[in-house]
Write a structure and sequence with these properties.
heterodimer, A: 4 domains, about 60% helix, extended, B: mainly beta, 5-stranded antiparallel sheet, transport (chain A)
């Protein structure tokens, strides 16, 4: 857009450019050209001066030439005819003895972006490829890519492509890298430059000569190469080892990316490479440039998905600096949550508490939800901090705390007492709809335990007319209904008022519909209402699980060293807008490499053999093993979703707690078994190895607690296929839990199993333990002595439909796996 | 690969724009798209990577300017950010300074630089050794007459330290002028350390990190080799303990690739042939421990007085050696929400403090704080409806300061030798500075 008076400026500049006195004085001429450019960069339209500038191009002054070229390249597209005039000067310059002039002319010739000029450019470009000076060759090589881009449909000259391939051997490393770039562009349709063995080895040998950017380019192109033999692969890897720990983050990242690509079939090597880049990545996290710090942090988050323990010892490096921007602080907190373990939890929580009062509300809220995340495994300490924060009576903090508590209670129902106490009186501070929605949800679920709940609701209902958020209104309706069910006397009146308002006055369709729904529901009677409204208040089965199972590297390798990890903001990982807590979901990815079903009779044999050898066998397990005569095979299909698993698991539990033993006898379609497996120290195994081992025999693990936490749990499932002699194949579904409570909790466990007596079918092994372990202190000590250093893992299995022999077979397989794992560890 | 490259001022003015790919994929309205995205977000911290359809913006902030590149989704963020940072430091080398004014005045030089550095969206070369053969435009120095220059003149005009101390602006001049004007041939070796410390309310050091670097800024046209000697008892890693006491220890070290380390193991000497301009020769880190006592301790007393005011009595002690001093110390203490006004008593007249309502904190400024001394301040903050729990909102105190002529790690440059011996007066400067913008004292 021309500025006011631009015509005057243009006229003045034209007069100056044409002035012979100025033209004869190099310095004044150059300054006039500079003025034109200044006008151009300030947004004045000076395209009218094109022909004068073309004349100014014919000069010996290189600075002036460069300035004119900047001008010409910007305006050439508007003046294609006049641009022909420039070509002559440029072609003359291509013959200049000074290599700088030659490269300058060649570069700008290709930068004019006019396809009509291509025919004039090809000849100097061909000559440029054979120029003595490297700087001219660099320009010429890229020039071919530019020309190709101008005429994408035209056939590329095979001779040029050949020449470019030859120039890969050019002594100048930049020429070599430029050749790669140009060939990638020109041969895009054929999939880019051909990466065969000689080229790969040539590029790798010359990697050291290139600068940082050249190395990155070469490493990127090499990702397409697939080594033919394993020896070659390892040669390449050892050659690249030095760049893996390069002090330049771009080279380090490009190398790791290449490593992960090359080692996709060798996950162990890939993991070792991740260990190797830990130091350079941590250094990048302390880089003076905050953008670089962010990039490194985001990539560390990727790495942690596969190696959760990678940075555990370095947690202090992720403490936030005061002056750091909010986006770095939030990332660091996300990393800190992943790094929590028994040793550092106190320090990390102390640090996070400091961030909760940050001036930036986003940072403060992120810190609070980070504490909530840690609360899934260390609930007591975190709740103490969270309730302390409520005392500050600040809107944004209270809102974040209430939302965090809601999420926490959903997975850890044991926190509910503390939460209910804390809720009193925080409704005055809450202002935003998110926070109030969370409060309402909590009141709905734990209304009978919060004494002031009806009064709180009354305030909400009185103010419903001025309420703007639809979400809050809907939540309010549900809460009032649920509270009515447990405290009818106090809430009846206000429920009536609310329903009246919603049905008669409310304009929003959703709220009104919901009001109608509840109204009609109440007409159907209280039992019906209860059935509909009494939902689950928590998700205890997955409560203690915080860590996701470690993902294989291949899950994220393709997004490593791209912009993707930086883009997903903290907002996306922790969506703030939801009325009720989300399920903690896990995505089990069935390993397709494994055969879907696996005959395990061989493993069973192996188990009994190894048991005898180790000498710590228990007769019952052996008995089980020998009883598995018919072949039993396990399979992972159909895959059980976590929600389905949860449903099955809880359903079974209810069944057994509510029904009598006799009734259970009649339940023919399902079976339940509690078993203790002795010896294995599997609770100390890494989740990866456990998962891998389980998958080997086609048992899918759904969720874990991280290692070294107590109680330690694993949830798993599988399908058995059991061929009775003569009968049709009979298949069952088994879901199970492994529980390890540790030495300190032994007493609790014993008492618990005692109380479970007669409710669950106990395995013979369990009987034995209970005989020795009378739940009195003396008996306890005795049993502890009896067990010695041995540790036990409690296995609870549920099967549907019932098939005892298959269940026993499965149990023996499981025992074998666990024993193998723990002996490996020893 | 970089499609477009532009430099914007903090107000959104377009200073430099280059469609470096020659592909013309997007019009020049990318600048507006970018700036709209930046201004649409609250706060002054837009995310580093933003996208608009297929267009991906990556930017860094340097010198108050936005350095923006547009690129494709699969390009490496490490490379692009490193490139933008390097570009900013090149511009700083060539223009002498990194301000909006300097960039505006030297736009021709920067266009020339960009032309050589990026061709068709590919980085060609960013080493100042290579570039100096190609760059012909001279830099225009934007520095006007400044009162700060006068501060070097001593009492009654006597030139007290003029010859021993280089003015702080000496190293911010364009590298090229030395060639044309035959100007002073000088070399600066800067040891810069950044410290971040957290001290618990009980005075225990909870976290200490030092990140240091040695930077060489060279204005010598013909210096083939220089040798930098570090402390002889300099050791790397936790295991290499040599004798008692005085060892200077760091955890990790990395060097510029041009540094030759053949004498490093035996006598801690770095050999390099410096190229013109600024380069980081060595970077090091030290975590968890400080070789000496942390430089500042705080002794706070915080209470509610009978009139419902918040009383903060803060004693700040500087534990530096007596000859050193911290300068430009700025302490900020968060105060409870709803604070209205403040009255204060400070222990000496050169300090100042004010209540910043926007950031909800007290800013306490101390221009100079000598080692071994103690300062105190009494703040009475008026907070309507002050509750006991509001006291939790006070703190932590964050210090922001500079320690000139001092490195907390103890790293020193023993000597600096140039070869061949420079004809004429060659000046060699070694400067030490430690600064911290994250020195947190819990209350």
């Amino acid at each position: 857009m021309p500025y006011l008076g631009s015509e005057d400026t243009e006229r003045e500049l034209r007069r100056a450019l044409c002035n012979p006195h100025i033209q004869s004085d190099p310095l004044r001429y150059r300054n006039t050209v500079l003025k034109v450019l200044r006008a151009m960069s300030q947004g004045v339209d000076v395209s009218g001066l094109f022909s004068e500038m073309v004349k100014a191009c014919a000069t010996v002054d290189i600075v002036q030439k460069k300035l004119v070229y900047v001008f010409l390249c910007s305006y050439a597209a508007l003046n294609p005819e006049l641009s022909l005039l420039v070509i002559n000067t440029l072609r003359k310059d291509c013959q200049d003895p000074n290599p700088m002039v030659r490269s300058l002319a060649l570069r700008n010739m290709t930068n004019l972006r006019l396809s009509s000029l291509v025919e004039y450019v090809e000849q100097p470009l061909t000559a440029g490829l054979r120029d003595r000076a490297a700087c001219v060759r660099r320009v010429a090589v890229l020039g071919w890519a530019k020309i190709h881009n101008l005429q994408p449909n035209s056939e590329t000259d095979a001779a040029v492509v050949n020449e470019l391939y030859t120039l890969l051997r050019d002594p100048d490393p930049v020429v070599m890298v430029n050749c790669l770039r140009a060939l990638e562009e020109i041969l895009k349709e054929e999939g880019g430059v051909a990466i065969n063995k000689p080229i790969t080895h040539h590029l790798l040998n010359r990697l050291k000569e290139c600068d940082v950017w050249g190395q990155c380019e070469v490493l990127r192109v090499l990702q397409r190469y697939r080594p033919q033999t394993e020896d070659e692969l390892f040669d390449i890897l050892s050659l690249l080892d030095a760049s893996l720990v390069s002090p330049h983050p771009p080279v380090m990242a490009a190398t790791l990316s290449l490593f992960l690509g090359l080692c996709s079939a060798l996950p162990a090597v890939g993991l070792a490479a991740l260990e190797r880049v830990r130091a350079p990545l941590l250094t990048a996290c302390g880089s003076p440039s905050r953008e670089m710090r962010l990039t490194a942090l985001c990539h560390i988050q990727l790495l942690l998905r596969s190696l959760p323990g990678l940075m555990g010892a370095h947690y202090k490096r992720f403490f936030c600096g005061y002056a750091e921007p909010a986006y770095i602080k939030q990332r660091k907190m996300q990393v800190l949550v992943e790094l929590v373990n028994d040793d550092n939890v106190a320090m990390i929580l102390d640090e996070l508490r400091g961030y909760c009062t940050d001036v930036n509300t986003d940072t403060a809220q992120a810190a609070i939800s980070a504490i909530g995340g840690i609360g899934r495994s260390y609930s007591d300490r975190c709740l103490e901090i969270l309730t302390g924060l409520l005392g500050l009576k600040q809107e944004h903090i209270t809102s974040a705390v209430v939302q965090t508590m809601r999420d926490l209670v959903w997975v850890c129902p044991q926190c509910s007492d503390t939460v209910c106490e804390a809720l009193e009186g925080c409704e005055d501070t809450l202002q935003d709809s998110q926070g109030r929605q969370a409060l309402l949800w909590l009141l709905a679920v734990y209304g009978e335990r919060v004494s002031s709940a009806p009064y709180t609701l009354e305030v909400f209902i009185d103010g419903v007319r001025s309420e703007t958020s639809v979400g809050v209104k809907m939540e309010l309706l549900t809460t009032t209904m649920r509270l009515f069910l447990c405290r009818p006397a106090e809430t009846q009146d206000m429920l009536g008022r609310l329903l009246h308002y919603c049905i008669e006055e409310e304009t929003d369709m959703c709220v009104r519909d919901q009001g109608h729904l509840y109204y009609r529901l109440l007409h159907r009677g209280i039992e019906e209402t209860q059935k509909v409204l009494q939902g689950r208040r928590s998700d205890p089965s997955l409560g203690v699980l915080i860590g996701r199972p470690a993902e294989p590297v291949s899950q994220w390798a393709c997004s490593f060293n791209t912009l993707d990890p930086l883009k997903q903001g903290p907002v996306e990982t922790e969506p703030p807008s939801r009325g009720s807590p989300e399920h903690v979901t896990f995505d089990p990815k069935p390993n397709t490499d494994l055969s879907e079903t696996l005959d395990c009779s061989q493993i069973v044999k192996l188990h009994s053999a190894s048991d005898r050898a180790s000498g710590c066998s228990d007769s019952s397990a052996e008995g089980l093993a020998s009883s598995v005569a018919p072949p039993l095979s396990l399979s992972l299909t159909p895959v059980l979703s976590p929600e389905e698993f949860e449903r099955l698991w809880l359903q079974r539990q209810d069944l057994h707690t509510e029904q009598d033993a006799e009734k259970r006898e009649e339940e023919e379609d399902c079976a339940c078994l509690v078993e203790h497996i002795r010896g294995p120290a599997i609770a100390h195994c890494s989740p990866q190895s456990l998962q891998a081992a389980m998958q080997l025999v086609n048992i899918q693990t759904l969720a874990f607690t991280p290692p070294h936490t107590l109680p330690w749990r694993v949830y798993l499932f599988t399908h058995t296929q059991h061929t009775h002699s003569g009968n049709a194949p009979h298949s069952t579904l088994i879901v199970g839990e492994l529980l390890y409570t540790g030495e300190a909790n032994r007493r609790v466990r014993l008492v618990k199993t005692g109380s479970d007596d007669g409710v669950l079918v106990e395995g013979s092994e369990e009987e034995h333990v209970r005989e020795g372990g009378d739940p009195t202190p003396a008996g306890l000590r005795e049993s502890a002595r009896e067990n010695g250093e041995e540790e036990e893992v409690k296995v609870t299995l549920k099967q549907q439909p019932r098939d005892d022999s298959a269940l026993k077979g499965f149990l023996s397989i499981l025992t074998t796996v666990l024993h193998t794992l723990s002996s490996e560890r020893a | 690969m970089i499609s477009q490259l532009f430099i914007l001022s903090s107000k959104g003015d377009n200073l430099i724009y280059k469609d470096s790919s020659v592909r013309g994929e997007a019009g020049s309205d990318v600048i507006n798209v970018f700036y709209e995205k930046v201004t649409a977000l609250p706060g002054d911290q837009p995310p580093v990577v933003m996208n608009h359809g297929d267009l991906h913006f990556v930017h860094v902030r340097q010198g108050g300017l936005y350095w923006v590149a547009t690129t494709t989704a699969d390009s490496s963020p490490f490379s692009i950010i490193e490139f933008l940072n390097r570009l900013a430091s090149l511009v700083k080398d060539y223009c002498g300074d990194l301000t909006e004014k300097a960039v505006q005045m030297n736009f021709a030089l920067i266009y020339e630089l960009l032309d050589e550095v990026v061709d068709y969206g590919y980085v060609q070369s960013m080493s100042s050794d290579v570039l100096k053969n190609f760059i012909q435009t001279e830099a225009v120095s934007p520095r006007p007459f400044s009162l700060f220059q006068l501060s070097n003149v001593g009492l009654f005009g006597a030139e007290t330290q003029q010859s021993k101390v280089a003015p702080s602006s000496a190293a911010s001049r364009p590298i090229q002028s030395s060639r044309e004007q035959g100007g002073k041939s000088e070399i600066f070796v800067d040891v810069i350390e950044r410290m971040s410390v957290v001290i618990g309310s009980n005075g225990v050091l909870m976290k200490a990190d030092v990140e240091g670097e040695i930077k060489v800024k060279c204005y010598m046209p013909n210096c083939s080799e220089m040798r930098i000697g570090l402390n002889e008892e300099f050791s790397i890693g936790k295991s290499q303990l040599r004798g008692y006491g005085a060892a200077v220890r760091v955890d990790e070290v990395s060097f510029h690739q041009a540094v030759k380390l053949d004498e490093f193991d035996s006598s801690r000497i770095l050999r390099l042939s410096p190229s013109q301009g600024e380069q980081t020769v060595m970077q090091y880190q030290l975590s968890d421990v400080l070789p000496s006592a942390p430089p500042f301790r705080l002794f706070p007393t915080i209470e509610r007085d009978s009139g419902g005011k918040l009383l903060m009595y803060l004693k700040l002690r500087c534990d530096l050696p007596p000859k050193s001093a911290a300068i430009n110390l700025c302490a900020s203490i968060p105060v409870p929400k709803g604070s209205v006004s403040m009255s204060l008593e400070l222990s000496s007249p050169d300090q100042s403090a004010e209540l910043k309502l926007q950031s909800r904190s007290i800013e306490w400024t101390i221009p100079r704080f000598p080692g071994g001394t103690q300062l105190s301040a009494l703040f009475k903050v008026e907070v309507p409806g002050l509750s006991p729990s509001s006291l939790m909102e006070v703190g932590p105190m964050v210090l922001n300061f500079e320690l000139p002529k001092l490195t907390v790690s103890g790293l020193q440059v023993r000597f600096l030798r140039l070869s061949p011996v420079q004809p004429g007066p060659a000046q060699r400067w070694v400067r030490y500075v430690t600064h911290s913008d994250s020195y947190i004292l819990r209350i």
